[in-house]
Every structure is written in structure tokens, then in C-alpha cells.
Amino acid sequence: MTISVLPSELACPLPWPDPARPLLAARRLALRRGARELCREFDLEVHAGQCVAILGRNGAGKTTLLHALAGLHDVGKGAAALDVRGEICFGDRSCADWPPVQAARFRGLLPQRQPMPFAASVQETVLVGRHPHLGRWGWESAADVSIASAALDCVGLQGFASRDLRALSGGEQQRVALAMLLAQTPRLFLLDEPLNHLDLHHQIAVLELFRALAACGRGVVMALHDLALAARYADIIIMLDGEGGVELGTSGDVLTARSLSRAFGHPLRRIEVDGQAVFLPE
Known about the structure:
By secondary structure, the protein is α/β, with parallel strands linked by helices. The chain has helices at residues 62-69, 100-106, 122-127, 142-154, 170-184, 200-215, 227-233, 251-254, 257-264, and strands at 24-33, 36-46, 51-55, 82-90, 93-94, 107-110, 188-192, 219-223, 236-240, 246-249, 268-273, 276-281.
């Protein structure tokens, strides 16, 4: 699984019309759930070609922030209600103003957990990603099947199309979920722990794949746990400290031993190996 050139089926059909306009913008965004402050006000812009990593300890609010950036604010009551302040825009419009189908064509979300409610083949599962591009009663065309096949090729699952999804390993199921997202062909990718269940080889291959997608005009925002991989592949870091604090900037600015030790509640050291940052617990 090594991507050197993206297949034409997955390349952006048109360049972003205004390079100065971000794909995603958050202005004075703040999140609170009940009495708990998840993140204080901050501003974010994600431009075509950029990769952003969201970091923080378990429960810091990475998934909640990612869903908010997708415009998917869960509906809760009482202490479970999520209070979203500020504005989130896709392109030049508030995400609330996008019709659902257009929003689904523009941004795609990889959830942290992949439901499998019934038996399905790998190809049938990946073709779910094409639904935003079909008419109300439309069926997948040969072009849709070609896009799904290209997506499977990109995640190294050639020859898996007829396999039963439930018979796959956890890592293979995660790559099928990634292929389904690729088949959606969104402009903006929002990934919640995309490296779940993957071995090191496939972790690197997936991150290289999304860097290649960014290079062809996509934007990528991903919640990660591996600090070294975030430093290597992300242009911008958003670090949540679990108490409402947010640090945003380049990896060199944000991923310091002092900031990481505070955010993760354990002393860490940062060292450089062949120009790459490595983080070790004290």
C-alpha cells in the first residue's frame, strides 16, 4: 500500500476557485457541555493543501471538536447538551446554510467507530460513500463502481470487493471505512483517529495518502494520538488540554515538552532524530 500518484477517479474535479478562501473556517469557536468547558474561543482556517492534527488526552474533546467542525452538533438535554458558540463556515457560507446533500459532497467525516448493522460485501460498503452523488432513486453507475474500486486500491484492498465485511480483521475493516470515505470524494476530510487498528506500515501509508490528497487541493483535519506522526504530517496543530485551553500553531510552536507535559499530564521530552521530532516520557 504505497500511493505515489492518486488515481484520476479520486482527484479533485476542479481547483478551489479562490486559494485565499479557506475550505473551513471557525471564528471565535467555543464548546461547552453542561458545566464543562471543552475549548475556549479560538479561530481556525484550513486551506486547500493543508493537514491539521487535533491532539489531547482521552476525554479532552477531540471527537466533539471534530464533529462540531463538520457541522454535526449532537442534540442532548440537560448536562449532556453541547453548547457551540461562534461560527463555522465551509468556503464562504456558514455550514448551517449548506443543504445536507451539498454539505455531504463537500465534507466527509470518518467516525471513530464503524457500525456494522448487517452483512454486506466490501464493495457494497464502499459504495455507500457514493450516496451523496446519487439521485433520490438512483443506483450506482459504472463510474461509481470505478471510483469505489480506485478507493479500495488506494488502501491496499485490491481483490477484497466480494469479501464479507464481518470476516475482515479490525485493521482491514478500518481500511474499508477509509475507502468508503475516499469514494465520497469530499473536498474536506475530517478524520477521527484514522489510524485505529492499523499496523505501522499502514499508518504511514494512510498518512501519506491524505498528504497526497491535500496536495491535490483537499483539506484534512484529523484527531491523532501519535505525537511524532502529528509532528511529521500536520501543518497545523490544535492541542486541547482537557480543561478548556487550546493551543494552535505549527508543530514547532505547539509541540514543546512543556506544553505536551501539561496537556497530557505526564512529563515528556522532545528530541530530534534526523530532523524529525520524537517525544519520550520521562
